[in-house]
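Form 7-S
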Amino acid sequence: MRDARRWGLPETEIEALRVVLGGSRSEAGFSGVWPQNRETVDAFVGGASQWRTALAFEAGRPRTLWIGLDYAGMAVALSARGLALSAGLLSGIQVMEMGARDALNASHRGA
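Output:
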């Protein structure tokens, strides 16, 4: 729940999250992100508004096609947060981006 507070989630929503998770994660135990991945996760979340999308049609219905992150926009978003987009950080962001992109696109196909 520390991360939820850190990102400004209201206490009412944090409590709802705690109920959904069923207390399976303690404040002192697993926090959801391994310490060595924290900078990458923070950077990915910090630039989460920088997705490139397109409109696609499947069976005559429109849907969002998630293409990938706009790295120029990501660099600006990170710079505004005091982070530099290094080669190592970009590599970690790209790993998260590929997983997120695949999951977002699959969610529209009922996968």
